[in-house]
Amino acid sequence: MKKRLDIFSGALIAVAFAALFIYGGNKAPLPSAPVYWDEPFNGYSYVIDTNDLRHITFGWSAPPAYIPLDARAEISAVSLRDLDTPDMFVVTNVSMFAFGADVWMASDATNYAFYVECDWVPTPSIVTNGSYHVRAVGTGERAVPIGVKIKMVNRHTGETREVR
To answer: Which helix (H) or strand (E) segment is 56 a member of?
Structure first.
């Protein structure tokens, strides 16, 4: 009797594995949309709600330390179906320090391409006279910018430094 119970248990386990294999193979892939991220965003991700494809959630980790507290994250979208004249429109505008945004679209979020950008732009490296200044060392005839490294193939040969 014990032998018959073992055969029955094995058959039951085999049927269960076969059912899970068939179910897993027929499962639909997770919905996705093209999302493009601006440089200051780190650890970014997005998720489209599988129960309501109009709902998409964006998330990111802490912005870099140089980003000011009043910086905003602007999320724009463009319809993938409107190929003739695609018009980008702003979906939402949140603080960079919100670390995420929930967005509800008019139709499925998979029908749009998204662009997530930071509205803060660093100040340019221009001095008031309008020319770019590079600190250098050298004589009146030649100048080498400070920090330039001279390398040959697989060999470091020198580095310029300011001598005081």
So the answer is: strand 55-59
